[in-house]
Amino acid sequence: DVQLLESGGGLVQPGGSLRLSCAASGFTFNNYAMNWVRQAPGKGLEWVSGISGSGGTTYYADSMKGRCTISRDNSRSTLYLQVNSLRAEDTAIYYCAKTYNSYWDYFDYWGQGTLLTVSS
Amino acid sequence: QSVLTQPPSASGTPGQRVTISCSGSNSNIGSNTVNWYQQLPGTAPKLLVYSNNQRPSGVPDRFSASNSGTSASLAISGLQSEDEADYYCAAWDDSLNGHVFGTGTKVTVL
Q: Closest approach of chain B CAs to the CA of A76, in angstroms?
C-alpha cells in the first residue's frame, strides 16, 4: 500500500526557517512526481510546489517562489520542503501528495499532513 | 488566491442530487483535465474524480463529473450523510505553470 508520512512541522517564529519531510513507501518513488499542498486553518487547498521524479525539474506557486525549495532523496524515498522567511500566513497543514505520473497529473495519494505554525 | 471558482456551499436532503460548479479559464480547465477531491472533516483530501470524469476504484458511481469549455461540474446523486465534506476541483494551469485548486464547496446533508 502507498504510504506518505509527513514530519517536521511545529512552532516557528516569524522570519525563521523549517524543513518538512515526507517519507514515502509502497511504490517506486523515483518514478513519480511529488508535490506539497497546504491548507491554512479553515481555508481551502493551495498547491505549493512540485518536483519531477528525477528531481531535475521543480515548480513553485508564485506565493512561495523565492522562499521555499523542494527537493527529494530518491535513495531514501523522501521528499523535502525547505521554507524560509516564514510569515504568519504560512501557518497551515502541509500535505505531501503523489502525482499519478507526470507533474501535471492528478494527486492520487495524500499524506495526513504536518502542521506548521508561525507565531511569536 | 484560488484561480478556480466554486460556490461556497451546497446542500440537499438524503437521496437528492447536488451539483457543484467549477469555473476556470482557457489556461486551466480549457486546456487540461479536471480532477475533484473530497475532504471529509478532519482528514486529508482524497481523490474523487480524475481526468474529467473517471472514478478511482472504490468511489461510488453516485459521484459523476463533466466539463465543457472553461467550466466543470461534480454531481452527487442519491446524497448520503457520509457525503458531508468539502469538495475541491483542480487542474494544471499552463500560464501559471502549476496546479490550481478551486475555492472549495462545503456540502451539507440536511
A: 24
Q: Give the C-alpha separation, B78 to B39, whole Å.
A: 19
User: At which residue does the C-alpha cell 524543513 appear?
Assistant: A19
pLDDT tens digits along A100-120? 988 889 999 999 999 999 999
Q: List CB contacts (< 8 A) between A35 and chain B.
A: 99
Task: Name the residue of chain B whose CA is nearest to A104's CA.
Answer: B92
**pLDDT tens digits, one per residue of B31-72:** 999 999 999 999 999 999 999 999 999 999 999 999 999 999
The phi-psi region of residue B69 (left if phi > 0; otherwise alpha if psi is between -120 and 50; otherwise beta) is: left
Residue A70 CB neighbour total at 10 angstroms: 22
Neighbours of A54 (CB within 10 A): 11
Q: Number of A:B CB contacts under 8 A?
A: 63
